[in-house]
Design brief:
The chain is of the alpha/beta class. It is built from eleven helices and eight strands. It has helices at about 15-20, 105-110, 150-165, 180-190, 210-225, 240-250, 255-260, 265-280, 285-290, 325-330, 360-370; strands at about 45-55, 60-70, 85-90, 120-125, 170-175, 195-200, 310-315, 335-340. It has an eight-stranded mixed sheet, sandwiched between helices. β1 and β2 (about 60-70) form a beta hairpin. α5 (about 210-225) packs antiparallel against α6. The longest helix is centred in the last third of the chain and has 16 residues, at about 265-280. The protein is globular.
Length: about 375
């Protein structure tokens, strides 16, 4: 299924900057929250899940792995006590669950009457390993941190949901970009643990072509910079500062850049802003997060997926070019799958349209309706 929509004009979000914050670790998470009778959701509840002697796919064992997370809303249970309304929300590369709890997401998705109304759903926002307030290279291990992959991310998310929160089956997963790829993996690795997944701006195939090239370019700019010092730098490596404007350009839509960068002054301001954003990020964290996609390749098991799948991409997304017709080719293999390619315009943001939920909230509503079908 392919649809087009008219997108209203909005200003470029500063959400990317929100992904850069760091905070003091919180105590280990308690067991799953107890259901209350309150009609309005509580504010987000934050905690850490700590998993001891955790083995990563590369064989490295860490004494402790911390996964920071937040929840919003109240669990609802059936007669057997099983939670029935849990929705896992998964962030993109370099971000955290905090970005998905920003005001724009609250207003578009979680407010009363919105598709993921927190008075109806129990919403879970983890920081994936390597990101946010979860364990990551910049905590101190730097390049001695395990070379984690996407499968490591998903396994730790699964442990958070099942072991820490005591949820056997999720109602849904909504994942954006990297989180969307994690959603594809969930549907294959844990087929009985989720009713439906909505991967946004991601494709169910290995990372190749343009998407692979930009990752290798950025990671090479970091690793090959003498100032990186094998990860022991004391200031952001210049290679990273120079690479990020290219990274940032790829996030945006071609029509939007054409409309907003009309002269050299505007282009220079874009580059300066991107460099300033890069200076606030940790290069090792970025390096690890980009290279963690090495083990992502869900294509071979698409026919085994039991969950309902509703994939959403944008026509102006240069990371996932619609000219490749990947969804058209691969989605027929998914037994209960649908997809939408939403039309972009000069007032949308390419891949980064993901950070503007007001532009695609109606697609969330369509996904949830899809889950209700017999």
């Amino acid at each position: 299924m392919r649809t087009s929509v008219c997108l209203p004009c909005v200003l470029l979000s500063a959400l990317l900057g929100l992904s850069l914050g760091c905070a003091t670790a919180r105590p280990q998470a308690p067991s799953a929250p107890v259901e209350t009778s309150a009609s309005a959701p509580r504010g987000a509840q934050e905690a850490d899940a700590v998993f001891t002697s955790h083995r990563f796919q590369d064989g490295t064992v860490l004494p402790e792995v911390r996964i920071h997370y937040a929840t919003l809303g109240t669990p609802r249970r059936d007669a057997s006590g099983a939670v029935t309304n849990a929705v896992l929300l998964l962030h993109w590369t370099s971000a955290s669950g905090e970005v998905l709890r920003s005001q724009s997401f609250q207003d578009a998705l979680f407010a009363p009457g919105r598709p993921l109304d927190a008075t109806k759903y129990f919403l879970i926002f983890p920081d994936s390993v390597g990101h946010g307030r979860s364990s990551k290279p910049s905590d101190g291990l730097r390049t001695k941190f395990p070379a984690y992959g996407y499968r490591d991310m998903v396994e730790l998310q699964h442990q958070l949901v099942t072991r820490t929160l005591g949820i056997r089956r999720l109602h849904a997963i909504v994942g954006l970009s990297m989180g969307g790829m994690n959603a594809w993996q969930w549907s294959e690795l844990y087929p009985d643990a989720v009713e439906g997944v909505m991967p946004i701006v991601s494709l169910p195939t290995r990372i190749a072509g343009r998407n692979l090239l930009w990752r290798r370019f950025v990671s090479g700019q970091i690793r090959n910079d003498p100032e990186w010092k094998d990860g022991l730098y004391t200031a952001p490596p210049r290679g990273w500062l120079e690479a990020f404007p290219v990274f940032r350009m790829m996030l945006d839509g071609v029509p939007h850049l054409q409309a907003t960068l009309a002269d050299a002054q505007a282009a220079d301001a874009f580059i300066a802003t991107a460099r300033a954003q890069a200076a606030g990020m940790d290069a090792n964290d970025i390096l690890y997060s980009l290279e963690s996609s090495r083990d992502y390749d869900p294509e071979g098991a698409l026919g085994d997926i039991q969950a309902r799948v509703f994939a959403l991409n944008f026509s102006d997304d240069e990371f996932n070019p619609v000219s490749l017709r990947t969804l058209e080719t691969l989605m027929p293999r998914v037994k209960r799958g649908r997809f939408v390619v939403q039309e972009g315009s000069a007032s949308s943001f390419g891949h980064f349209t993901q950070a503007h939920p007001e532009l695609w909230a109606d697609q969330i509503a369509a996904f949830l309706k899809f889950l209700e079908e017999g």
